[in-house]
Amino acid sequence: MAPDREIPSLSESQIEQIERRLRRVFWGSFGLSFLIVVLLIILIPRWDLLPGPFRVAFQAILLWSLLVTAYGFHSQTRVSESMKAILKQKTFIDEVTGVFNYRYLDLRLAEESERTRRHGGLTALLYLDLDGFKDVNDQFGHQVGNVVLEQLAGTMSQRVRSCDVLGRIGGDEFLVILPQTDRREAYILAERLREAVENYALEVEDGHVVDFIRVSIGVAAYPVNGETMDNIVTAADNAVYESKAQGGNRVSMADEFITSDVGAGRIVDSVRGEPETDAEPG
Q1: 221 with 187: CB under 8 angstroms?
Q2: Distance (Å) of CA 267 to CA 41, 263, 273
Q3: 203: β partners
């Protein structure tokens, strides 16, 4: 599952400006309505003595001001909700790639762990570490590196299922949470992602092409490879090291069972740590 990158369509600064304008409209119309009501209270004892056209105009102005006040309040509420949506989205979205960030991954890991404990089944994890990404930053700079990360994240988002959660841990490392998925199914999806990265190419300046990025992937499943979800992330990360040791660009299955007091929290601590805006080589 990839985050909705179309909501909201306005930038945060634009929504703030609209919110300020609507606030002025609301309080202006509210003040006008208040003055008209006060004037109406004063005029009630002499209402029948007032000219007919004046009474009609007075009522029309009062109705108009009340409608503007109601519209301003309604619009301000909707804009405030949009602002909250932006802030919530920014909390859980990685700014470079547009996929989920470590905060959201951390929450989903806890949710899937609890769901699996209660209802059974398996939750699989894919730990992805890009091969050769350091060369992109060294040769073409971090700006091109960020473009590569964004495009690769988009490519991988198209390969995962709607129920899966793809997120960036930090640097050039990603995690995919696969609910109700066994190790065989996870391996198949991992191979699909590996092939997608292998086929990726980006033309840059002077005719150069970035077509050398590959990915090492580790596969683990809860509770097959550990007592806690933290252990599963550790097992998947260890499997990545196996892929790296065999030359990279391959998928490795975790074959260990990690208890909660061995290595627990080591990888999840890195997930919870603040990732760099520009990717560092893995």
Answers
A1: no
A2: 69, 8, 10
A3: 209
Beta bridge partners of 167: 100, 175
Query: What's the angle, vertex CA 271, arms to CA 270 and CA 272, rounded to 5?
Result: 90
Alpha helices for the chain (secondary structure H):
12-43, 52-92, 102-119, 133-140, 142-159, 183-198, 229-245, 266-272
Tens place of pLDDT for every residue, the chain, 282 residues?
656 444 344 455 655 666 666 666 666 666 766 776 777 677 777 767 767 787 777 777 767 766 766 666 666 566 556 555 555 556 788 989 989 999 899 999 999 999 999 999 999 999 999 999 999 999 999 999 999 999 999 999 999 999 999 999 999 999 999 999 999 999 999 999 999 999 999 999 878 999 999 999 999 999 999 999 999 999 999 999 999 999 999 999 999 999 876 544 444 444 434 434 344 444
Contact 71, 26 (CB under 8 A): no
DSSP-derived secondary structure letter, 254: -
H helical segments located in 93-202: 102-119, 133-140, 142-159, 183-198
Q: Which residue has the tokens 């004037």?
A: 39
| Distance between CA atoms of residues 1 and 89, nearest Å | 14
Q: Residue 142's Cα: distance from chain center in Å? A: 22
For residues 23 and 62, the answer to whether their CB atoms sit within 8 Å is no
Backbone φ and ψ for 216, nearest 5 degrees, come out as -105, 135
Bridge partners, residue 125, by sequence: 177, 220
